Amino acid sequence: MKSVVNPYLSGDFKTSQNSFLLQPISSEELHANKVSRNFWCNVKGKGEWSATGVSSSQQAKVFTREEEEVTLRAGVLWHSIHRVSKDMGLSSSILSFVPMDHQVEIMKVDIQNISNEEITFTATAAIPLYCRSADNIRDHRHVTSLLHRIKTTGNSIIVNPTLTFDERGHKKNELLYYVSGSTGEGECPKGFFPCVEKYIGEGGSFERPEAIIREKEPVGEGIFLDGYEAMGGIQFEPCTLKPGEEKSFIIRMGIATKESVIEEVGLAYSTVKDVMNALEQAKEHWEKKQNVYYETGDADFNQFMYWVSVQPILRRIYGCSFLPHHDYGKGGRGWRDLWQDCLALLIMNPNGVRKMLIDNFAGVRMDGTNATIIGEQQGEFIADRNNITRVWMDHGVWPLITTNFYIEQTGDIDILLEENTYFYDKQVVRGEEIDTTFTSDRKPCLIDKENHIYRGSILEHLLVQHLTAYYDVGEHNHMRLRGADWNDALDMADQKGESVAFTAAYAGNLITLAKLIQVLEDQKGMKEIKIVKELGSLLQEETQIYDDVTKKKECLHNYCYTCKQEVSGDFIILSSEALARDLTKKAEWIKEHIKKNEWITVGNHSWFNGYYDNHGRRVEGEFEKGNRMMLTSQVFTIMSDTATKEQVEAIIKAADEYLYEEKVGGYRLNTNFYEVKDDLGRMFGFAYGHKENGAVFSHMAVMYANALYKRGYAKEGYKVIHALYQQVNNFEVSRIYPGIPEYFNEEGRGMYHYLTGAASWLMLTVITEMFGVKGSKGNLVFEPKLLKQQFNSKNNASLTMNFANRNLRVTYQNVNEKEYGDYQIMRVLLNGEDIMVTSHKGRIDRKVIEGLEADRYHEIVVLLE
C-alpha cells in the first residue's frame, strides 16, 4: 500500500503502477491539481467550510491575515493536520495512516465546536476516484472512464472497472476500488455522491463543487452508475455540537479483490476505538522496524538520524518512484538500489539478508553486465522495461561492497561458495550485440553445452563482474563510461567516455576480492578455487597486457564470444594464492596508472580528473571559463586508497575551495562547466545547482564523508555530514520533513525526499565510521571517530543497534574530554564486566555476543582515555 499525503491531504494512493485509487500526482500537480482528500462541513447559517483548507474561499485567504491557523504533527508513517476556523467556530483534526492488516488508508476526522454557541453542520467526505493505471493519466483518460462500473452500498462507493487498459493489454479487471465511511460510533452515512460530473456541476470544481455549495441531496445505497469518472462523496446526517463538543468520522479508502474484503475492512475500522487501536499497532510495528537509536550531544542530530533510518524502509516499499518528486517512470528499484538498500537492512534487520544477497546474483550476466530492472519476486530480473540495451559501468561495484559488508558483519565467508544462475537474454557481448537466436519463451538463465542451466559460485559471479570491467577500457586505459556510471546523467559518452572515478572503485574492490580469497584459504583451508573454464582467459599472468589497450579489448571480446549463448560447463582449478596475487596486481596497476596520469595541479590546488568525454578529452582541470572539479572523482580515489595521504589532504583543500558552499548544504557535485556538454551527459542540460549538475547531491556527499572517515580524516568527514544535517534542520530554507533528500537545489531546498540511497550510506557512515561500531569477520569491534564536540554534557555518546541478533547499547565515555586522535580505548565492559583491554581498539568475539540473552538489551561501555 503506497500512499502519499501533504498538508492539504493532496497526494495519491496506489498498490502498483497499474492500480491507482487516487489520481497519480507529480510535484507540480500538488499545487496545480485540485484533487485532494477533502472533507466539507456545511455549517448552518454560515456556509461551507473545508476541514482540509481546500476550498476556493480558503485558498483566497492564504498569505493574508485571515489565513487559518494550521498545525501539522507527524510520526513514522502517520500524519495529523489540525486546522482552526474562528469564522466558522470549528476546528478539525485529521489523522491519516495505513494500518498493518489491510490495504486501506484510514482518515479519522474530528470536528470540534470551538465557539460559545451550538453549531449544526452536515459533513461530507469528498475524494475523487481514479481507479486505473497511471498510463491513463493522459492516454485514454476519458475512454477508460467508460470502463467504470460504480455502485453504492450501505457505507461505500465501489468502482469495478470492466477491463484494464494499459501496456499489458486489454484484460479483465480483478480489482475493486472503494471509499467507505462511518461516524466515530460506527453509524452508516446518510448518502453518496458517486459521480464527479454530478458532484461538481457545470462550471464547478473540486474547490467549489455544486453539491456542497447548493447542498444537493445525495443518493442512497443500491445505486448503479456506468461509464463516468467516479467520486468518493460520502455525506453524513446533520450533527449539532455544543461548545467544546466533538464529532468523529472515519473514512476508509482501499483496493480489494472482492466485496467481502471491503466488508471486513469496514468492520475492522468502524469506530474511533478501532482506529486508534490500529494506529497504536502500526506505530509499534514501525518502531520495531526502526531499531537504531543515536545519542550524541546534539539532540536534533539524534532525531534527524532517527528519521534517516526510516528512509531505507520506505525505499524498499516505494522503489524509486511513487512519491511526487520521484517521477522515475513506472516504479520499482534498479540494480544499484537493490544492493545499497541491503546495507541498511544488514544493520536494522539482518534476518533473511543472506538468501536475499544470493538471490540477487541471479541478475548478473556471464559477460559481467546485469539485468537493470528488479522483478516482483526476490531473485526475479528483467533486462530492461523498454528493451533498451544499456550498460552502467559501475554496476559491478556494488554487489561486492554489500557482500563484503555482510561478511564483515556476520563472519559468513561461506556465502562466497553458494551457487546461483546467471541472467541470460538477447543482450550479449556487454550490450554491444543482440543474440538473434534468443526467444522470449526461453527461461532467462544461461545454459551449458549439455543444455543444463549453469550455476556458478557467488565468488565466481564477483570475479566475472570485476575481471570483465578490468578489460573494458577506452583509449586512455581507464574503464569505459558506457551508458553512465553512478551518475546516471553522464549518459552521452558511450563511445569514447571513460570513468576514472569508478576505475579507482574497481581497483579497491579487486583488493577486497583478493583479501576474501585469502580468508577462504586461512579459515576454510581452500588452497584452490574452481571457476568456469571460459573465465580463465581473463586471468592473464602476462603483466605487459595491462598497458596495452588493444590487447585488453581483444581479450574481453574473445571471452564474451565464448559465453555469448552458452558456456562449456567445464571448470578450471586455480591456486587461491595465485588468484589473489593476480587480482592484487591488477588493482595496483590501476592505482599507479591513475596517479601517474590523472593528478591535476592548477595554481595552488590539486585533485584527480575523473572522466573523459565522448571526444576522448579530459573533463576536469583548468579551462577557459573556470577550473573544473567533480566530487565523484575524489571520492573513489580516496575510498579505494588510490590517493596517497598527501593527495587526500590536497583534495580536501581543493574541494573546500571549489565545491563547498555552506548555504546550500555543503559540497556540490561539480563546479559550473558553463556549457551544455552534450558529449558527456544530460546533466549539463540541467540548470547549474540543480540535481546532478552542481547541486549538493546527498549520496555522493555522504560517500565523500565515508571515504574521509575511512582514511582517518574524522574532522573533515564530520564537516560533510554536519553541513547536510544543518541544511535539513534549517526548515525555513530546506522546507522538508526530517531525513536526508536526494539533493539540495540552488536555493538550498531539499528535493526528492525519502527515496534516496543516501540514507543507507549515511546510516552506514555514522554507525560504522563515526561511532566506529562494526563487524570484523563477524566479531564486534569499536573504532570510534567521534569528535569532542559530539559527546553530551556527561561526556558520553551512545548507539543502540542490533548485532548478531542481539540488541546492544554501546556507550563511549570520554571522561577526559579528549579530541579524536588523542583518546584511545582503555576498557570495554559488557553488562558491567570487563571484556578486554587494548591500546587501540576494542573487540568482542562473536561467540560472546551470541551467548547473550536474545530478549533484552545489553549494555556495552567503552572507556576512552
TrEMBL record:
Gene Ontology biological process terms in this record: carbohydrate metabolic process
Domain Glycosyl hydrolase 94 catalytic: 293-512, 579-770
Keywords: Glycosyltransferase, Transferase
SUPFAM superfamilies given in the database record: Galactose mutarotase-like, Six-hairpin glycosidases
InterPro entries in UniProt: 6-hairpin_glycosidase_sf, 6hp_glycosidase-like_sf, Gal_mutarotase_sf_dom, GH65_N, GH94_catalytic, GH94_Enzymes, Glyco_hydrolase_94_b-supersand
Glycosyl hydrolase 94 supersandwich domain sequence ranges: 85-266
PANTHER family attached to this UniProt entry: CELLOBIONIC ACID PHOSPHORYLASE, CELLOBIONIC ACID PHOSPHORYLASE-RELATED
Protein name: Cellobiose phosphorylase
